[in-house]
Amino acid sequence: MTRPIARPVASKGVSEKPCPGGDFRSVSAANDSLLGSHLRISATRLETISSQLGEADWAVLNFVSECRLASGKQLVRRFWQTSDRDTSAARAGRRTLKRLADWRILDPLPIRAVGGLHGGSDTLIYGVGVAGVKLLARRGLIQKRLGRPGERHVKHTLACTELVVALHEADRDGVLELIEAQSEPACWRGFLGAGAVRLMLKPDLFVRVGAGSVNEDRWMIEVDLATESSATIRAKALRHLAYYKSASEPVHPRVLWAVPDSRRAEQIADVLARLPADVKRLFAVCLLDGTVAFLAAEAHS
Questions:
Q1: Cα–Cα distance between 270 and 20 in angstroms, integer?
Q2: Which of 207, 206, 208, 209 is nearest to 176 (CA)?
Q3: Domain with CATH 3.40.1350 in the chain
Q4: What is the model's pTM?
Q5: Fold of domain 43-143
Q6: Spatial contact of 268 and 257, defined as CB atoms under 8 Å apart
Q7: How far is residue 162's CA from residue 208's CA, in Å, rounded to a whole number?
Q8: Pairing outcome for strands 205-211 and 124-128
Q9: Of 6-10, 54-58, 60-64, 171-175, where does mean pLDDT reach its minimum?
Q10: Using an 8 Å Cβ cutoff, are 161 and 282 in contact?
């Protein structure tokens, strides 16, 4: 079976509609706060908060909702465009995040991200708060309940958020052209497998990168932190292969495993090497820290 893989005509101004399973607008917002979900926000208080929210506040809320979790440092880099905590922009960012947390737009987790100077507010990890959930619901965006996520889930989610932030920074710096970045579950894809069985592909990210003036590269990205067995990796690869064979997309995304070190890269490559030769070009492996450079190089090739 042959069909083009990635690089269709680009359109930065038009966002794609998520496939079935890529939306989560079906969960009640009543208890969807990471911490203190039992605390209620009165309608009057919510109106007061809503009236004071600016576009920048909404941008931060929407980003945390899409990524599910983000550290204070990641949010300052994304929206205040600095990694130096001593700049006026960084201080403004921290003040804004504190205000959004005080208003319960965002809620900090009871654990902190690794790194950050003196364990300060940069290391706080934010999810959508009870007021944020209610405000998103007014716009038809019902936040999926997170409860109290475990350490492994938090670490993986922050790694995905880090990649999204790095892609936006690369776009701003002219390293590559980021057309779109979808996080889970918006990047999930429903499809029909063998025997018309309904299946779901669940990559960590879906990314569209400009490649020349009229083309683009499409990638499904698996952010791997070396916590899964070779059998699990093979099962994921076979699910990607089943999605490819379903011809659900006329121009199929390539699949990139972003891994923490060269040893893990060799393990993933060994699993992928055992797949049928005619589909190996669907897959690629790179180091997590080099993902942006890899995508940029592919777009310029």
A1: 32
A2: 209
A3: 155-299
A4: 0.86
A5: Arc Repressor Mutant, subunit A (1.10.10)
A6: yes
A7: 17
A8: unpaired
A9: 6-10
A10: no
CB–CB of 130/120 below 8 Å?
A: no
Given a contact cutoff of 8 angstroms between Cβ atoms, the answer to whether 204 and 187 are in contact is yes
Q: pLDDT (tens digit, 9 = 90+) per residue, 67-82?
A: 999 999 999 999 999 9
State how far the Cα of 110 lies from the Cα of 107, in Å rounded to an integer.
9
Q: Quote the Cα angle for 151-81-143, to 5°.
A: 45
pLDDT band at 196 (very low <50, low <70, confident <90, very high): confident
Tell me: pLDDT of 66 over 60.
Answer: yes
- pLDDT grade for 250, boundaries at 50, 70 and 90: confident
Amino acid at 172: R
Residues of the chain with CATH 1.10.10.10: 43-143
User: How is residue 6 written in tokens?
Assistant: 């990635």
CATH 3.30.565 at 155-299, yes or no: no
Structure-model confidence comparison of residues 37 and 237, the more confident one: 237
Closest CA to 75 of 123, 29, 30, 31: 123
Amino acid of residue 133: V
Q: What is the 3-state secondary structure (H, E, C) of 119-179?
A: HCHHHEEEEECHHHHHHHHHCCCCCCCCCCCCHHHHHHHHHHHHHHHHHHHHHHCCCCCEE
In this structure, what token pair is assigned to residue 29? 């917002």
Residue-level pLDDT at 9: 53
